[in-house]
Amino acid sequence: xxxxxxxxxxxxxxxxxxxxxxxxxxxxxxxxxxxxxxxxxxxxxxxxxxxxxxxxxxxxxxxxxxxxxx
Length: 70
Description:
Elements: H1 2-20, E1 27-28, E2 34-35, H2 37-49, H3 55-69
Antiparallel strand pairs: 1-2
Helix pairs in contact: 1-2, 1-3
């Protein structure tokens, strides 16, 4: 199930970038609450695909992976 969430996040990130021209990232408020357009989009993708994983956690993992890959 985790690999499905991970792959869906990567696919959604690619589509988001192609559609909007913007990087698929999360925004964190001063209060520490995550949000932003990509995170809202990913929440809808997970809902449609019936993925129970946290969109925020998956986005964070994708961002960490990108940093580690260089």
